[in-house]
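Problem: given the chain below (76 residues), write out its structure.
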Amino acid sequence: MIANLIGGFISILVGTSLIGPVANEVAGAASTGGHLANTSAWSVSVLKLVPGFFALAILGIGVAVTYTSLRQAGIV
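Solution.
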């Protein structure tokens, strides 16, 4: 149980520290001078969703670690 909590805490810590760089790279790629400047507006708008889904994945890690730890403790 402790190993799950420590692993989950490290995953959440690393993930939250990477949200900023991911958002910066997405903004750079989606800008007018970025790599996607000559593509459709649809692909740029989909690319801008990446940081949000990355944050949701980190939230999912937290929920999964909490549920697993509670289930192993016999609370759930």
